[in-house]
């Protein structure tokens, strides 16, 4: 199979998974809401962004189950709480997004759509619709269904989720890594940047690169 064809199939896999997850999230939420289904939303917009991460880049640290569930629900609760307490559609969104980022970082569940959840809920709670804690019900149903579908679909299609870094090929005679995991962590600390890739994945990548270089230098046997 050509590299281009494989790339198209990878994105097709993600697109089909995301579409299925959104469809099932709406259906499950509608069922759970029952008589309240006419008053509460079946879907919230941040779920679309979460679906992109879960199904298109499932190896991302920002797309792991705790990030998806914790990031969205914690941020939504913060948004509703700040919106209800301030009653200001001008100030609540900024306060909510800032607080959500801080709490998500502290709780190790940083998830970009969480910022959208905080913003949406702050506006809903501070605006004319006056959202209350009841709105956490459809949001929770959305997020938990998405995570469940993501776990089943990703693993069935060959992408471990929660993500586990691939084990490098062990062949001491062929490759001797010149780095350690601590070296990678030290460099990241010196850069003072947050990269959207796990340290274990970087380590596995570098080891595989070393293996390929060593195999090329040794030549065919």
Overview of the molecule:
- 66% of the residues lie in helices and 0% in strands.
- With 221 residues, the chain is an all-alpha fold.
- The model has no long low-confidence stretch (mean pLDDT 87).
How many H/I helical runs? 8
From the alpha carbons, calculate the radius of gyration and give it in angstroms: 21 Å
Quaternary state of this entry equals single chain
Q: For the report, how would you describe the main beta sheet?
A: none
List the helices and strands and how they pair.
Layout: H1 3-33, H2 46-56, H3 65-86, H4 92-106, H5 112-126, H6 136-156, H7 181-191, H8 199-218
Which short descriptors sum up this protein?
221 residues; mainly alpha; 8 helices; 66% helix
Write a compact overview of the structure shown.
The protein is mostly helical and 221 residues long. It has eight helices and no strands.
């Amino acid at each position: 199979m050509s590299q281009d064809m494989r790339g198209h199939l990878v994105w097709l896999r993600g697109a089909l998974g995301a579409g299925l997850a959104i469809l099932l999230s709406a259906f499950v939420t509608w069922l759970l809401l029952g008589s309240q289904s006419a008053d509460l939303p079946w879907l919230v917009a941040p779920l679309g962004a979460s679906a992109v991460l879960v199904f298109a880049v499932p190896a991302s640290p920002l797309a792991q189950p705790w990030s998806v569930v914790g990031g969205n629900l914690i941020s939504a609760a913060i948004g509703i709480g700040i919106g209800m307490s301030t009653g200001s559609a001008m100030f609540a969104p900024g306060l909510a997004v800032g607080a959500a980022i801080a709490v998500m970082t502290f709780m190790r569940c940083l998830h970009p759509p969480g910022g959208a959840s905080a913003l949406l809920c702050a506006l809903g709670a501070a605006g004319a619709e006056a959202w209350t804690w009841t709105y956490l019900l459809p949001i929770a149903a959305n997020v938990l269904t998405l995570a469940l579908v993501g776990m089943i679909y990703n693993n069935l299609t060959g992408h471990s989720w929660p993500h586990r870094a691939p084990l490098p090929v062990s062949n001491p005679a062929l490759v001797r890594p010149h780095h350690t995991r601590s070296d990678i962590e030290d460099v990241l600390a010196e850069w003072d940047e947050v990269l959207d890739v796990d340290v274990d994945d970087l380590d596995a990548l570098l080891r595989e690169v070393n293996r390929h270089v060593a195999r090329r230098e040794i030549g065919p046997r």
